Amino acid sequence: MSKMPLKSLHRFKCVHKSWSILFENSYFMNMYRKYFISDNSYYDDAYLLLKQTILDNENHSLLYLLYGERFDNKVKLDWPPSFREDDRDINIVGSGINGILCLYVEGFSSKVVLWNLAIEEFKVIPSGPVLFVPPYVKVMNQIHGFGYDYIIDDYKVIRYVDFHTNMSKVSYDPSWEIYSLKSNFWRKLDLDMTTFYYCLAGVLEQVYMDGMCHWLGRDETNIDNVYLVSFDLSNEVFFLTSILFNYG
Q: What's the mean pLDDT when you consider all of the chain?
């Protein structure tokens, strides 16, 4: 069964209970992923995802599947139901991990969804912050990373949470939070990471690789200092690597 296509394997979940729980067996899933990556025939039938944003007053986002020898065939895909009524400025964090995409809309009315496109399943992530705040306090979420913790077989999302209120006597400190798919809740991280994104060509880039999430950040006291911020999803610690850009 580890050599079957993912869609066929998912269909067999309803045949027998022992087949269904294979998706919860970390040994089987690791074996399946290794075979999937090593199977050269996969690259003969590769696909590309293309996200297009219509630059109008509302910035509607479209998603296409490209396929064929030169990827010259294109099919428009439907967003998960959570985004179909409002497809404005949908972002994808980094790239897919084991077939799962992390979609989000940033801002005061943030929305985050984990979407497995191959089997058409999605998970809406709770949006509320760990800290309880009254209704008059606006919460601004900034998604910084999405990755896989291979130590405990869990998917995680990292975000920076900031609070805004018009009441001068009321203030809330911003914080870092991490979401676990296994537990399905956010918790606060006791970290002092740099919070300023560094944008290249106006794009906020996040990359996941080998249990680490990476993004570019700036020093809060000196914005000319640019760093590669690397966050270890298993140990939940971060590292800064100084980067020098040649503007000449």
A: 80
pLDDT in tens, 62-87: 899 888 778 888 888 888 888 877 77
Give me the amino acid identity at 186.
Answer: W
**Which residues lie below 8 Å from residue 62, measured CB to CB, with a gap of 6+?**
51, 52, 53, 54, 76, 87
Question: Which of 154, 146, 211, 151 is closest to 182 using CA atoms?
Answer: 154
User: What residue type is 182 in one-letter code?
Assistant: K
Long-range own/partner contacts, residues 66-75 (CB < 8 A, 24 or more apart): 74/50
What would you measure as the largest C-alpha separation in the chain, in angstroms? 64
Contact by Cβ (8 Å): 28, 22: yes
- Rg of the chain over Cα atoms, rounded to whole angstroms, equals 20
Q: Tell me the pLDDT tens digit for each residue of 162-216.
A: 888 876 666 788 889 999 999 999 999 988 887 666 665 455 678 898 899 998 8
**62 strand-pairing partners:** 52
Least confident of 7-21, 79-93, 121-135, 206-220: 7-21
Nearest to 199 by CA among 184, 181, 185, 217: 217
pTM value is 0.76
Task: Count the Cβ atoms, other than its own, within 10 Å of residue 61.
Answer: 19
Alpha carbons within 13 A on the beta-carbon side of 199: 4
CB-based contacts of 43: which residues, under 8 Å, 6+ apart? none
Q: Quickly count: other Cβ atoms within 10 Å of residue 88's Cβ.
A: 15
What is the rounded CA–CA span in Å between residue 231 and residue 237?
6
- Average pLDDT (87-98) is 83
The two three-digit tokens of residue 76, written as one number = 């428009």
